[in-house]
Design a protein that fits this description.
The structure is a single chain. The protein is an all-alpha fold. The protein has helices spanning about 15-35, 45-70, 75-95, 100-120, 120-130. The chain is built from five helices and no strands. It is elongated, with a radius of gyration of 15 Å.
Amino acid sequence: MSILTWSEDYQTGIQQIDEQHRELIDAINELHSILYTAQTPDELIKPFSELLQCVQRHCDTEEELMCTYAYPDYIEQRIEHEQFLERLVNLFMHYHDTPTQFALKLMPFLKRWMHHHLQGADKVCGEFLHNHGVS
């Protein structure tokens, strides 16, 4: 069961970033499918850790490109990345206390953030990078 589907609307025109966006969507969909079938909280540790690693790798890639090409909104993007990662970790830290609330909060949060970030900040950043010869 997928909660997110790749769309051309998410494309930035930067191959590495677009591939990582697809990986993020896959990781979110994997976590989503396990979230509702897990028998124990420990079953979520691996897919959640994989999602966090995927997010961190993606943020690092974007931030490296932004620094290399002097992207003017680098600080704002970095703060947005940090807040996203912090929110994910905070949500997961409370999973054992309220697994149902975790599920009800996590997936809508991920879906909103992905739509907003991919179609907003990443799209603008992709255009900037593309204009500076990155593809």
